[in-house]
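Quick illustration, no need to memorize.
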Amino acid sequence: MVHAKKSLGQNFLNSKSVARDIVRAGELLPTDTVLEIGPGKGFLTKELLASGVHVIAVEKDDRMIPILAEKFAEEIANKRFILIHGDILENLEKNTLGLPPSYKLVANIPYYLTGQIIRMFLEAGEKPQKMILMVQKEVATRIVARPSTRVARAGERKESILSIAVKAYGTPKLIKKVPARYFTPAPKVDSAILAIENISNTNFPNPATEKHFFEILHTGFAHKRKMLTGNLKEIFESKTIQILKEVGILENARAENVSLEQWIALTLKSLHLR
């Protein structure tokens, strides 16, 4: 028996109904190409292939390669399943996945790589058409939250760099909460199926705007306990309070209280001042 490796963040899905919920969330067509990250023993892979799609799977754990090669020998022979032994982050960076212009990302990803994987794929030149990911429930809840533009009270949902980044590129949707017992070994926290749809660069008409947006976002979140006025003085100097007021941000707001629309407005104001 092959046991999960803690160092790789492995928690194997053991529920067919949840695997089928993931596949349904992808709204897959037989003409689709699906990229799966960390297929493990192929539990989700089996359901993906059963839907008729073409699957490209990237697996880092060398113990899983012979298991997957044997389990899906027929699909590999028919070229419906391509198995790549490698690190998804390195493969994506080097553009060695052989992905078509249009594809969907469907995966039960290692939780410690959640932010990195989401950001890398959303910022990639060839973005997925849709992303269906198993993530920690708290992460999914924060990503889909729509905080008020007023200063949040204790216990209310707050934005993060990741949640704003996701909304800048697409529409996040929480599909289903998944209890820890549906994994082996069971993680310490519950999970959720997160969908990111309508992925595009609509908010960034050019690379310069995209780059500057994230510079402002990171500057705003640089010191979380400080008010936004203090963090953004580095960029707007003496005009900080005036500009925040112009885009509807309260003087005592923190970065976690600011909406995507307001971050975009701040980006445009900053570009105009240059």
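Confidence is low (pLDDT under 50) at residues 148-155.
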